Amino acid sequence: MGVDDVLVVIVGAGPAGLATAACLNKLSIPNVVLERDDCHGSLWRKRAYDRLKLHLGKDFCNLPHMPFPSDFPTFVPRVSFLRYLDCYVTSFNISIRYNRNVESASFDESDGKWRVVVKDTESNADEVYLSDYLVVASGENSEGYIPYVHGLKGFQGEYMHCNQYINGRDMYGKNVLVVGSGNSGMEIAYDLTNWGANTSMVVRGPVHYFTKEMVYVGMSLLKYFDLQKVDKLMWLMSKLKYGDMSGYGLVRPKEGPFTLKIKGGTTPTIDVGCIRKIKKGLVKVYPTISSIVGKTIEFEDGRNGEFDIIIFATGYRSTVLKWLKDYRLLFNEHGMPKPDYPNHWKGEKGIYCAGFSRRGLEGISFDAKRIADDISLAVKARKIPGGKSSHACTLASNSWRMNELFCS
Ligand SMILES: Cc1cc2nc3c(=O)[nH]c(=O)nc-3n(C[C@H](O)[C@H](O)[C@H](O)COP(=O)(O)OP(=O)(O)OC[C@H]3O[C@@H](n4cnc5c(N)ncnc54)[C@H](O)[C@@H]3O)c2cc1C
Ligand SMILES: *[C@@H]1O[C@H](CO)[C@@H](O)[C@H](O)[C@H]1NC(C)=O
Ligand SMILES: *[C@@H]1O[C@H](CO)[C@@H](O)[C@H](O)[C@H]1NC(C)=O
């Protein structure tokens, strides 16, 4: 069994792990990223649907030290985002060990180090990493979450979480029910109608909906105006564009979108065309499911229908508790950080987390920079020898050549 001593171990090579590694490399702090999959950015590469684009404008989605190239569209498509990540990994010389599933991590009081036990899923060998710092970047979206539904186990159709949905090619003419009215639910329902599926959706509660452009304007205005003003404007824009949709089963929350987002982390839904389909009657809206018998699904308002496929767009869960033994040093029983934003990223005994603030890629950049700076300060204070090379810095300046790299 191999034992490796590294200053910083980062778990997960998604945007959060990569951003943290890049910031550490810039400060010449040795680190290694452990990734269970055979690639980085696996959520975007393998667990996202074809037509996905970044929902937020590119100004709000770049990782630290490397803006998106100027010729990228405002809303970056999935494939371009992956190319950006590839480029990020090369530019910052990020060291990733793939096919490494982190099975446990615990803090050893005797030597003050984190002991990270890893399974190399290719060779099936166990490895141990001893580190002074542990950065959890395994994602809030680690695992699809399907809520309890009475009778779902006996459903005679097929059901899946939306992270398994790629496109609706095989769903032509089928009766499909999408559960959830967040970004994924609305976009998948829209996509399904384009593939010729007879599409319905479950909207479980009040929801805000806007075009991407409205959200982009709103987020930009937040830099200059207070929350209430921007929320009012958002509400007005949505009302003007879509009108009152309550007759179709879509009710707006009483509180404004950005206020809600800040309070509870619920994101307003970005409409890519689904609302128009609902208005045209091409997507039928139902309330919460009350029970399922055979293929018949009954809803809380007493209506029912026969369905072939159910797609749950009902969110994700963190899986931190499955492997992190001493999670209490930072996380609660739900696998989310105990301290509130903006102090969520740091725990005790050298544990940190990146990407757990429900603030998307912008939140990830925020975390990565703070974590790297904090570790750098701690390293200096403890006089642990850091990286001697200056590679990282010279490489970082190369990042400005992104455009060239993309063209080649
Ligand atoms: C469909 C969808 C669309 C989104 N669109 C946007 C958007 O437009 N703008 C925005 O700002 N945000 C968006 N987000 C939110 C967020 O920015 C992304 O989810 C982002 O990928 C999160 O990055 P992450 O690195 O925290 O997590 P992930 O991308 O989930 O990466 C975590 C990595 O950790 C690995 N891992 C997990 N457990 C282990 C383990 N035990 N051992 C080893 N490796 C492990 C995983 O394989 C994965 O590669 C979107 C999210 C989803 C689901
Ligand atoms: C489409 O689905 C709805 C259920 O939402 C159902 O009532 C209707 O009969 C279906 N249409 C066809 C052509 O199957
Ligand atoms: C990249 O990082 C590795 C260590 O992870 C190091 O051995 C190598 O020299 C670095 N390469 C460059 C070009 O900096």
UniProtKB/TrEMBL annotation:
Q: Which UniProt keywords apply?
A: Auxin biosynthesis, FAD, Flavoprotein, Monooxygenase, NADP, Oxidoreductase
Q: Quote the Gene3D superfamilies the UniProt record gives.
A: FAD/NAD(P)-binding domain
Instruction: Spell out the family assignment given in the record's similarity comment.
Output: Belongs to the FMO family.
GO biological process terms held by the UniProt record: auxin biosynthetic process
Instruction: Cite the Pfam families for this sequence.
Output: FMO-like
Which top-rank group of organisms is this from? Eukaryota
Q: In which pathway does it act?
A: Plant hormone metabolism; auxin biosynthesis
Species: Flemingia macrophylla
Entry-linked InterPro entries: Auxin_biosynth/cation_transpt, FAD/NAD-bd_sf, Flavin_mOase-like
What is a single molecular function from GO for this protein?
indole-3-pyruvate monooxygenase activity
Write out the catalysed reaction. Answer: indole-3-pyruvate + NADPH + O2 + H(+) = (indol-3-yl)acetate + CO2 + NADP(+) + H2O
Might you give the EC number(s) for this enzyme?
1.-.-.-
This one is known as: Flavin-containing monooxygenase
Q: Which cofactor does it need?
A: FAD
